[in-house]
Amino acid sequence: MGILGLAKLIADVAPAAIKENEMKNYFGRKVAVDASMSLYQFLVAVRQEGNMLMTADGETTSHLMGFFYRTIRMVDNGIKPVYVFDGKPPTMKGGELAKRKERRDEAQKQLEQAEEAGNVEDIDKFSRRLVKVTKTHSDEAKTLLKLMGIPYVEAPCEAEAQCAALAKAGKVFGVATEDMDALTFGTPVLLRHLTFSEARKMPIKEFHLSKVLEGMELSQKEFIDMCILLGCDYCDSIRGIGPKRAIELIRSHKTIDDVVSKLDKKKYSPPEEWPYAEARNLFIEPEVADPDSIELKWVEPDEEGLVKYMCEDKGFNEDRIRNGCKKLAKARSGTTQGRLDSFFKIIPQQPNSANKRKSEEKPGAKKGTAKRGRGSFRKGR
Amino acid sequence: MFEARLVQGNLLKKVLDAIKDLLNEASWDCADSGIQLQAMDNSHVSLVSVNLRAEGFDKYRCDRNIIMGMDLTSMSKILKCAANDDIITMKAQDNPDNVTFMFESPSQEKVSDYEMKLMNLDQEHLGIPETDYACVIKMPSGEFARICRDLSQFGESIVIACTKEGVRFSAAGDIGTANIKLAQTSSVDKEDDAVIIDMQEPVTLTFACRYLNMFTKATPLSPQVSLSMSPEVPLVVEYAIGEIGQIQYFLAPKIDDQDN
């Protein structure tokens, strides 16, 4: 999942790239949500007494519950979500997927053992690890979103890559996912914890790619190479090279090719067949649909349709669904609050001006004078 | 060395009351010409700009420009310790880690010193263009505070419509609608009570009550408030700070949604 240890590395090396914010401060923002990750998240997390929520016939509904309420939470806060679903996995991901299957088989065995021993905690733990997102799950989520009037996009390949493309094209403000590889795909702003439950009171973490690169002193290309060294979904990394060493190596050698040629082969051995160049290509030119061809429309929720689908077919409580519908409809009426930064331009800070103790400016240098720019508003339409 | 002495210490107390609900922390830029503060609230909807001129202080000295990042909640706590008639002096070194507030009673019999740690704040400065506004409304500040308070019972937003007849404030919500119309004062007997409208073209804009109500915390600073509006640009709410400066609030309007 994502890039190994990238979040921690960013917090260490480029702390200025991370901002924490409350959800209500994202009003009016369009956000691309990695739906496949959310599906998984909901199936794992939305549970009652350790079991997934189910209808009378034993159909899972955890994901629908998650999609319905977490989407409403976002919409209620003025956020406009657009969900992006995974397409087919890239062939490069085969290795990673095989590993995941192995882990799942392992968990299955452990679950059986735990059941035999009657250890409730372990049963719970391992059954969560067994969660698998199926096509039915995502089709049901899509049906629900359509009824809710929330747009969704089907990515030809990886959802994170499509999210990143939407954000780069300016179609959305940022990408909501927990997977850090969205940054490797070039997402300008990554939002973590956006789809978490309200009860957890987690502030939203904002990662700015430009500040990450600035703090790490890397270009986007070098950043991609560093992420591959850290460990991505597409190929192996070099044993014994952790985050610290990875960033040092890339800083001094710029590319993996140079890193490999200069590497002390006795100490570190790169994997024998190491398709890092292909992995790099996947990050630079992922298979995505052209963002300009995608039109995002948030429409009126279909209340009767929702009640029919969620209550009659899936056994949800009708009052709650109708209440949710009201919230969706209310958020659509009325106007959106504007932001000052869309009217006034931010004056770039002089280097070190924040770091006053270090700045050795000449006495009498006027810092305050740059505060008021001249010019005029754009008037009228 | 930075030192600013204000006999009317009360003013500084009121300035803090006027900004501390909107901002948690902010940087005070001290220069030869005076002290300035500019900061946006967390959601970037409003901006506060405070300007205190050097001439307004009874004693002012600033050898080098310094930026003092302060936790405004803490600063407000300290200023609460000053009596209303105290003389307040702010002091700091050239590269300060701390700022000192000194309160002297008018009789000079009691002198208190409070030292506060400064913070290194990474704040964005916005360039605010000088603008000729289409409407400038001057009105009693108490009246404005009252209108905002009354209308916020009806809905989340207030519509301010300025025409040549006068200015209309309105709100609508679940319980019904509310309209308050103010006409221009014809005869000016008392300047502080007058409503004066200077209008080039009519403007109607919608704003969030929550922010307007926070702006009116500045009401004790000045008997008059001025509202400046132009189509599709932020509103400016301005109060004078005694004789020594002014506080301006900028508020982004609510806009119609294009995606729906």
Based on Cα principal axes, name the global outline of chain A: globular
**Largest interface pair:** A-B, 50 and 49 residues
Question: What is the N-to-C order of secondary-structure elements of chain B (H for helix, E for strand)?
Answer: EHEEEEEHEEEEEHEEEEEHEEEE
Figure out the total of helices of chain A: 15
The oligomeric status of these chains comes to: heterodimer
Unreliable segments of 5+ consecutive residues of chain B = none
Helix content of chain A: 40-55%
How many alpha or pi helices of chain B?
4
Order of helices and strands of chain A: HEEHEEHEHHHEHEHEEHHHHHHHEE
Q: Helical proportion of chain B?
A: 10-25%
Measured on Cα atoms, how large is the radius of gyration of chain A? 24 Å
- The fold-level CATH name of the largest domain in chain B is Proliferating Cell Nuclear Antigen
Category from helices, strands and their pairing of chain B = mainly beta
- Rounded to an integer in angstroms, the radius of gyration calculated over CA atoms of chain B is 20 Å
Record the strand order, biggest sheet of chain A: 1-9-8-7-2-5-6
**CATH arch. level architecture of the largest domain in chain B:** Box
- Which overall shape of chain B is indicated by the principal axes computed on the Cα atoms? globular
Structural class of chain A: alpha/beta
Strand content of chain B: over 45%
Give the DSSP E fraction of chain A (strand runs of 2 or more residues): 5-15%
